[in-house]
Amino acid sequence: MADEKMPSAMIAWMSGKGWGAHHDQWHFERRWDFWHALAAQPGHDPDIDHIIADAVSKGWTRSSLQEGSPGNGEDFLFMHRAMFQLLNDNFPQHMHFLRGWHSPPQDPSDPEDPAPDAFNSNMKNAIKKIEANAPTLADDNAYGLFIETNWKPTPNDPLARNPDPETGIHNYAHNRWSDQDSPVNLGDPRVNIFNARFWKLHGWIDYQWWRFRRAKGFDDSAANYQSKLRFYVQMMNQDAHHEHFAEVIMELAPQKTRNVFAFDVFP
Hints:
By secondary structure, the chain is an all-alpha fold. The chain has helices spanning 8-16, 19-29, 32-39, 46-57, 72-90, 121-131, 140-148, 169-176, 196-216, 223-236.
Protein backbone atom coordinates (compact mmCIF):
# COMPACT_ATOMS: atom_id res chain seq x y z
CA MET A 1 0.00 0.00 0.00
CA ALA A 2 1.41 3.40 -1.00
CA ASP A 3 2.02 5.97 1.70
CA GLU A 4 -1.02 8.12 2.45
CA LYS A 5 -0.46 11.85 2.77
CA MET A 6 -2.06 13.99 5.42
CA PRO A 7 -4.83 16.40 4.30
CA SER A 8 -3.43 19.17 2.10
CA ALA A 9 -4.55 21.91 4.51
CA MET A 10 -2.55 20.32 7.32
CA ILE A 11 0.49 19.89 5.08
CA ALA A 12 0.31 23.54 4.04
CA TRP A 13 0.01 24.67 7.67
CA MET A 14 2.95 22.51 8.83
CA SER A 15 5.03 23.71 5.89
CA GLY A 16 4.21 27.32 6.70
CA LYS A 17 5.49 26.77 10.23
CA GLY A 18 8.66 25.15 8.88
CA TRP A 19 7.99 21.91 10.71
CA GLY A 20 9.82 19.68 8.23
CA ALA A 21 13.02 21.68 8.58
CA HIS A 22 12.65 21.94 12.34
CA HIS A 23 11.97 18.21 12.70
CA ASP A 24 15.06 17.38 10.65
CA GLN A 25 17.23 19.84 12.57
CA TRP A 26 15.98 18.68 15.98
CA HIS A 27 16.84 15.05 15.28
CA PHE A 28 20.09 15.76 13.43
CA GLU A 29 21.59 17.99 16.13
CA ARG A 30 20.84 15.25 18.66
CA ARG A 31 22.62 12.75 16.45
CA TRP A 32 25.57 15.04 15.82
CA ASP A 33 28.13 12.76 17.46
CA PHE A 34 26.57 9.73 15.78
CA TRP A 35 26.90 11.16 12.26
CA HIS A 36 30.44 12.38 12.79
CA ALA A 37 31.49 9.03 14.25
CA LEU A 38 30.08 7.28 11.19
CA ALA A 39 31.93 9.72 8.92
CA ALA A 40 35.20 8.90 10.68
CA GLN A 41 34.95 5.21 9.83
CA PRO A 42 37.01 3.97 6.85
CA GLY A 43 34.89 3.10 3.83
CA HIS A 44 31.78 4.79 5.18
CA ASP A 45 28.75 5.53 3.02
CA PRO A 46 29.43 8.80 1.12
CA ASP A 47 25.83 9.85 1.72
CA ILE A 48 26.87 10.50 5.32
CA ASP A 49 29.29 13.21 4.18
CA HIS A 50 26.52 14.86 2.16
CA ILE A 51 24.12 14.76 5.11
CA ILE A 52 26.69 16.39 7.41
CA ALA A 53 27.69 19.01 4.83
CA ASP A 54 24.04 19.92 4.29
CA ALA A 55 23.52 20.39 8.04
CA VAL A 56 26.67 22.50 8.47
CA SER A 57 25.66 24.70 5.52
CA LYS A 58 22.44 25.55 7.39
CA GLY A 59 24.35 26.57 10.50
CA TRP A 60 23.19 23.62 12.58
CA THR A 61 25.25 22.77 15.65
CA ARG A 62 25.62 19.99 18.17
CA SER A 63 22.92 19.69 20.84
CA SER A 64 24.07 19.20 24.41
CA LEU A 65 21.52 16.37 24.58
CA GLN A 66 22.41 13.56 22.21
CA GLU A 67 19.95 10.85 21.20
CA GLY A 68 20.07 8.09 23.80
CA SER A 69 21.56 10.31 26.51
CA PRO A 70 19.77 11.31 29.76
CA GLY A 71 17.20 14.03 29.16
CA ASN A 72 16.64 13.36 25.47
CA GLY A 73 13.91 10.77 26.05
CA GLU A 74 11.73 13.29 27.84
CA ASP A 75 12.32 15.96 25.20
CA PHE A 76 11.40 13.47 22.47
CA LEU A 77 8.01 12.84 24.08
CA PHE A 78 7.20 16.50 24.80
CA MET A 79 8.19 17.79 21.36
CA HIS A 80 5.89 15.35 19.58
CA ARG A 81 3.05 15.92 22.07
CA ALA A 82 3.26 19.65 21.33
CA MET A 83 2.85 18.88 17.63
CA PHE A 84 -0.30 16.87 18.37
CA GLN A 85 -1.73 19.64 20.54
CA LEU A 86 -1.25 22.27 17.85
CA LEU A 87 -2.68 20.13 15.06
CA ASN A 88 -5.67 19.16 17.17
CA ASP A 89 -6.28 22.82 18.05
CA ASN A 90 -6.04 24.00 14.44
CA PHE A 91 -7.66 21.07 12.62
CA PRO A 92 -10.39 19.54 14.80
CA GLN A 93 -12.14 18.41 11.61
CA HIS A 94 -9.15 16.14 10.87
CA MET A 95 -8.76 14.67 14.34
CA HIS A 96 -9.13 11.13 12.97
CA PHE A 97 -5.87 11.51 11.07
CA LEU A 98 -4.16 11.97 14.43
CA ARG A 99 -5.44 8.78 16.00
CA GLY A 100 -2.61 6.35 16.56
CA TRP A 101 -2.51 2.65 15.93
CA HIS A 102 -4.35 0.56 18.49
CA SER A 103 -1.11 -1.42 18.37
CA PRO A 104 1.68 -1.34 15.74
CA PRO A 105 0.76 -3.81 12.98
CA GLN A 106 3.13 -6.76 12.98
CA ASP A 107 1.83 -8.73 10.01
CA PRO A 108 3.82 -8.06 6.79
CA SER A 109 0.61 -8.63 4.83
CA ASP A 110 -1.48 -6.21 6.91
CA PRO A 111 -3.87 -4.60 4.38
CA GLU A 112 -3.39 -1.05 5.71
CA ASP A 113 0.25 -1.10 6.83
CA PRO A 114 2.11 -3.85 4.94
CA ALA A 115 5.88 -4.18 5.23
CA PRO A 116 8.44 -6.24 3.30
CA ASP A 117 9.71 -8.45 6.11
CA ALA A 118 8.86 -10.22 9.35
CA PHE A 119 8.50 -8.14 12.50
CA ASN A 120 11.55 -8.19 14.78
CA SER A 121 10.94 -10.48 17.77
CA ASN A 122 12.61 -8.07 20.20
CA MET A 123 10.32 -5.30 19.01
CA LYS A 124 7.31 -7.56 19.52
CA ASN A 125 8.41 -7.94 23.14
CA ALA A 126 8.90 -4.18 23.40
CA ILE A 127 5.32 -3.56 22.29
CA LYS A 128 4.04 -5.97 24.94
CA LYS A 129 6.08 -4.18 27.60
CA ILE A 130 4.94 -0.73 26.50
CA GLU A 131 1.29 -1.71 26.30
CA ALA A 132 1.57 -3.19 29.80
CA ASN A 133 2.56 0.34 30.97
CA ALA A 134 6.27 -0.57 31.23
CA PRO A 135 6.16 -0.53 35.08
CA THR A 136 9.90 -1.13 35.45
CA LEU A 137 10.74 2.22 33.82
CA ALA A 138 11.22 4.97 36.38
CA ASP A 139 10.10 8.21 34.74
CA ASP A 140 9.25 10.08 31.53
CA ASN A 141 12.86 10.24 30.41
CA ALA A 142 13.49 6.52 30.86
CA TYR A 143 10.22 5.80 29.08
CA GLY A 144 11.08 8.09 26.17
CA LEU A 145 14.56 6.62 25.78
CA PHE A 146 13.21 3.07 25.81
CA ILE A 147 10.72 3.86 23.07
CA GLU A 148 12.80 6.18 20.90
CA THR A 149 16.21 4.62 20.31
CA ASN A 150 18.65 1.78 20.87
CA TRP A 151 21.58 4.20 20.85
CA LYS A 152 23.25 4.83 24.21
CA PRO A 153 26.30 6.98 23.48
CA THR A 154 29.21 7.41 25.86
CA PRO A 155 31.95 10.08 25.78
CA ASN A 156 34.34 7.51 24.31
CA ASP A 157 31.89 5.78 21.98
CA PRO A 158 29.18 7.81 20.22
CA LEU A 159 28.03 4.60 18.49
CA ALA A 160 27.44 2.60 21.67
CA ARG A 161 24.11 0.80 21.83
CA ASN A 162 21.80 -0.04 24.67
CA PRO A 163 22.42 -3.66 25.74
CA ASP A 164 18.65 -4.09 26.02
CA PRO A 165 17.60 -5.40 22.55
CA GLU A 166 14.01 -4.26 23.12
CA THR A 167 14.81 -0.56 23.02
CA GLY A 168 14.06 1.68 20.04
CA ILE A 169 10.64 0.67 18.68
CA HIS A 170 10.26 4.24 17.36
CA ASN A 171 13.39 4.13 15.21
CA TYR A 172 12.64 0.55 14.20
CA ALA A 173 9.16 1.46 12.97
CA HIS A 174 10.45 4.45 11.01
CA ASN A 175 13.00 2.20 9.36
CA ARG A 176 10.54 -0.64 8.75
CA TRP A 177 8.05 1.49 6.83
CA SER A 178 10.60 3.64 5.00
CA ASP A 179 10.24 3.97 1.25
CA GLN A 180 12.96 5.86 -0.61
CA ASP A 181 10.60 6.39 -3.55
CA SER A 182 7.86 7.98 -1.44
CA PRO A 183 7.62 11.79 -1.38
CA VAL A 184 6.64 11.42 2.29
CA ASN A 185 9.22 8.75 3.16
CA LEU A 186 8.81 7.71 6.80
CA GLY A 187 12.60 7.55 7.12
CA ASP A 188 13.15 11.18 6.15
CA PRO A 189 12.51 13.71 8.96
CA ARG A 190 12.11 16.51 6.41
CA VAL A 191 8.93 15.01 4.96
CA ASN A 192 7.71 12.17 7.16
CA ILE A 193 5.43 14.49 9.17
CA PHE A 194 3.31 14.72 6.00
CA ASN A 195 2.83 10.93 6.03
CA ALA A 196 -0.34 9.65 7.72
CA ARG A 197 1.60 6.65 9.06
CA PHE A 198 3.88 9.01 11.02
CA TRP A 199 0.87 10.10 13.06
CA LYS A 200 -0.32 6.52 13.49
CA LEU A 201 3.04 5.65 15.02
CA HIS A 202 3.40 8.77 17.14
CA GLY A 203 -0.26 8.71 18.14
CA TRP A 204 0.30 5.23 19.55
CA ILE A 205 3.46 6.41 21.34
CA ASP A 206 1.71 9.46 22.79
CA TYR A 207 -1.28 7.44 24.00
CA GLN A 208 0.96 4.83 25.61
CA TRP A 209 2.91 7.63 27.29
CA TRP A 210 -0.40 8.97 28.70
CA ARG A 211 -1.19 5.49 30.03
CA PHE A 212 2.30 5.20 31.54
CA ARG A 213 2.01 8.53 33.33
CA ARG A 214 -1.43 7.62 34.60
CA ALA A 215 -0.22 4.25 35.91
CA LYS A 216 2.68 5.99 37.67
CA GLY A 217 0.41 8.59 39.22
CA PHE A 218 2.20 11.48 37.53
CA ASP A 219 0.28 14.78 37.54
CA ASP A 220 -0.20 16.59 34.21
CA SER A 221 -0.99 19.78 36.11
CA ALA A 222 2.46 19.75 37.77
CA ALA A 223 4.50 22.88 37.06
CA ASN A 224 7.45 21.05 35.49
CA TYR A 225 5.19 19.13 33.08
CA GLN A 226 3.22 22.22 32.07
CA SER A 227 6.35 24.32 31.68
CA LYS A 228 8.05 21.84 29.35
CA LEU A 229 4.96 21.28 27.25
CA ARG A 230 4.38 25.03 26.97
CA PHE A 231 8.00 25.51 25.86
CA TYR A 232 7.59 23.05 22.98
CA VAL A 233 4.15 24.32 22.00
CA GLN A 234 5.55 27.85 21.75
CA MET A 235 8.54 26.62 19.79
CA MET A 236 6.44 24.70 17.28
CA ASN A 237 3.83 27.45 16.93
CA GLN A 238 6.19 30.11 15.60
CA ASP A 239 8.14 30.12 12.38
CA ALA A 240 11.53 31.54 13.31
CA HIS A 241 13.08 28.71 15.31
CA HIS A 242 15.47 27.73 12.52
CA GLU A 243 16.52 28.47 9.00
CA HIS A 244 13.71 27.33 6.73
CA PHE A 245 13.94 24.94 3.90
CA ALA A 246 12.04 26.21 0.84
CA GLU A 247 9.04 24.10 1.79
CA VAL A 248 5.82 23.99 -0.19
CA ILE A 249 2.87 21.63 -0.31
CA MET A 250 4.23 18.20 -1.15
CA GLU A 251 1.75 17.52 -3.95
CA LEU A 252 3.28 20.45 -5.83
CA ALA A 253 6.96 19.87 -5.19
CA PRO A 254 7.98 16.29 -4.40
CA GLN A 255 11.66 15.97 -3.54
CA LYS A 256 14.22 13.20 -3.50
CA THR A 257 14.00 11.67 -0.05
CA ARG A 258 16.56 9.97 2.15
CA ASN A 259 16.32 7.49 5.00
CA VAL A 260 18.37 8.52 8.01
CA PHE A 261 17.11 5.51 9.96
CA ALA A 262 18.75 3.15 7.47
CA PHE A 263 21.91 3.46 9.55
CA ASP A 264 20.15 1.94 12.59
CA VAL A 265 20.58 -1.80 13.09
CA PHE A 266 18.26 -3.95 15.15
CA PRO A 267 19.41 -7.44 16.22
